Automatic annotation (TrEMBL):
Family statement: Belongs to the HesA/MoeB/ThiF family.
InterPro entries xref list: ThiF/MoeB/HesA (IPR045886), ThiF_NAD_FAD-bd (IPR000594), Ubiquitin-activating_enz (IPR035985)
Any one GO MF annotation of this record: nucleotidyltransferase activity
Name of this chain's protein: Thiamine/molybdopterin biosynthesis ThiF/MoeB-like protein
Pfam families tied to this protein: ThiF
A cellular component term, taken from the record's GO annotations: cytosol
Organism: Gracilibacillus halophilus YIM-C55.5
THIF-type NAD/FAD binding fold domain segment(s): 7-243
Length: 282
């Protein structure tokens, strides 16, 4: 069977075509987080024929994940499988032609910089802003596009960040809303996750196939339950004095990454204390 046969319907889509499929089959995508967003993003990209996926996640599958994290099974939860390992096992059964690199651990500054050399796009599938600020700094330091995504309850938001062109996460936080609630506090429905995933994967495919003209330049927000959809023009948000994407970047998240931080992990009775070495304390 011709290696393109399985992607026939995708190559018929004119913005991708055969040339775009070849670019996808040679692309490397880094997915930070392998929970609700990350596992679904990984599945879509695997089915699309991306050449290589690197998955980074520190967490384990548990029963409460199964309502929204489509790759995982009851057996994974029973065995408390690491999410990145469980995802790799499923993805390799979906498309054996995709190389899956699975990293069980925290997406700290060292790990991100070790993983980024051949990466075309980084996809944010995390649940905390400490990690997002690290992604932001690493992406801009290495001139790599990254796609922000977040969701809670029935709402979600996404934005595609391109170094030297768009505002970065630090710039955006001065003008855009963020979620104050967490899924542990107010819950979440699976369709909201899939909406964010659809935006992130589509933007990744545009970047990989170099269809830059059709990239979403606005910050996108929605609430599926309330039938609300909004885009915000953030062009003017880019700040020349920004410590990450400004004229003289200092990459503060990377500089501060060795300081001690304490945070709860979403969905687990676990607190993480982070310093130079990372430990999970139950």
């Amino acid at each position: 069977m011709n290696s393109f046969d399985r992607y026939h319907r995708q190559t018929l889509f004119q913005p991708i075509g055969v040339d775009g499929q070849e670019k996808m089959m040679n692309a490397h995508v880094l997915i930070v987080g392998c929970g609700a967003l990350g596992s679904s993003v990984a599945e879509m990209l695997t089915r699309a024929g991306i050449g290589k996926l690197t998955l980074i996640d520190r967490d384990y599958v548990e029963e409460t994940n199964l309502q929204r994290q489509h790759l995982f099974t009851e057996q994974d939860a029973y065995e408390q499988q690491p999410k990145s390992i469980a995802a790799k096992e499923k993805l390799e059964k979906i498309n054996r032609n995709v190389e899956i690199e699975s990293i069980v651990g925290e997406a700290n500054a060292y790990q991100l910089e070790q993983s980024i050399d051949t990466v075309n796009v980084i996809i944010d599938a995390t649940d905390n802003f400490d990690t997002r600020f690290l992604i932001n700094d690493v992406a801009h330091k290495h001139d790599t596009p990254w796609i922000f995504g977040a969701c809670v309850s029935s709402s979600g938001m996404t934005f595609t960040m391109i170094p030297k062109q768009t505002p970065c996460l630090s710039c955006l936080l001065h003008i855009t809303p963020t979620f104050g609630a967490t899924c542990d506090a107010v819950g979440i429905i699976s369709p909201a996750i899939q909406m964010v995933v659809s935006h992130q994967v589509t933007e990744a495919l545009k970047l990989i196939t170099e269809d830059h003209e059709n990239l979403q330049s606005a910050f996108t927000l929605f609430d599926l339950w309330k039938n609300q959809y909004q885009t915000i023009n953030v062009t003017r948000a880019k700040r020349p004095d920004c410590p990450t994407c400004g004229k003289q970047p200092t990459f503060p998240a990377l500089r501060n990454s060795t300081s001690t931080k304490i945070e709860s992990l979403c969905g687990r009775d676990t607190v993480q204390i982070r310093g130079r070495a990372s430990h999970l304390i139950n």
